[in-house]
Amino acid sequence: SVGDPLMFSNSAWGLLGYATATQVSTNADGSVSVTLSEEIPHLATDSWQADLNFMGPRWIIRNNVFHNGLGRAVLPQSPYGLLENNVMGDMFHYPIFIGILQDVPPSATPGVQDLQVLNNQISTSGAKAGSAFIPGQVSGLPGAILIGTWLNNGLFDESGSTDVPVNQDIVLSGNTVRDVSGPAVFIGSASKVLVSGTQVEDSNRRAEHYFLGTASTQGSIVVSQSHDVTIAGTEMTGAKTGPVSIDRHSTSEIKVQKRDR
Questions:
Q1: What is the rounded distance in angstroms from the CA atom of residue 67 to the CA atom of residue 80?
Q2: C-alpha–C-alpha distance, residues 248 and 224, integer Å
Q3: What's the pTM?
Q4: Where are the beta strands (DSSP E) in 37-140?
Q5: Within a 10 A sphere around the Cβ of 29, how many other Cβ atoms?
Q6: How far is the C-alpha of 219 from the C-alpha of 30, rounded, in Å?
Q7: Which residues contact 71 (CB under 8 A, 6 or more apart)?
Q8: What is the pLDDT of residues 211-237, one digit of tens each?
Q9: Which of 9, 72, 130, 255 matches a 20 to 30 Å C-alpha distance to 54?
Q10: What is the pLDDT of residue 104?
């Protein structure tokens, strides 16, 4: 409809830009022509377009308890969300998966923008710390809080693309993660992410891990395929809790302002 906010990405989920529909008309063959308020560079026939008015925006999940679950606790896939003061424990998979889940194409969403994840408590979740998609590793826990893009081939987007990801403007603040098999936080396929005041206790409890360029899931906070990420005021304790681990090949503008152990 005229006036709707639209977002465009390429076939690899790299962000191309935003525009507003200024004119919409239906052609004789049933196709639709849309005039945009802004020119979108590199727009192609295989590009993705999303109408942000119809993607479940503006939601709040607050003061809930999630426990003993086979899957995830929360799966944010739409813009303008608040996830606050929840308790999540004994989940088989990653309790919070933020991003695009393209498991049955074309089921994918336009990603997550303007999300705040505040003051949540996560514990004892994740069956193993290895990758679910590497032979010999039964199940995967890339991160208790995971930002990423799950492609339709069953893999996370770690292709090394330099496109700006569609997952943007995400704040993870005041969260506590303890007793988890792998990393506490995994940031992949994202940009403009702030991680602040995170308390990590006894992460990386299992030895299984894998490498993403120069990063490793032995780290308690892992950053790969991301841009403009700030990590500040973290407190990490525990014999196996790892450091911040960053892939230098697929990231840029990564700032770690303070790290305590």
A1: 25
A2: 8
A3: 0.81
A4: 48-51, 59-62, 65-69, 81-84, 87-91, 96-101, 113-118, 121-123
A5: 5
A6: 52
A7: 91, 92, 93
A8: 888 998 889 999 988 999 999 999 999
A9: 72
A10: 52
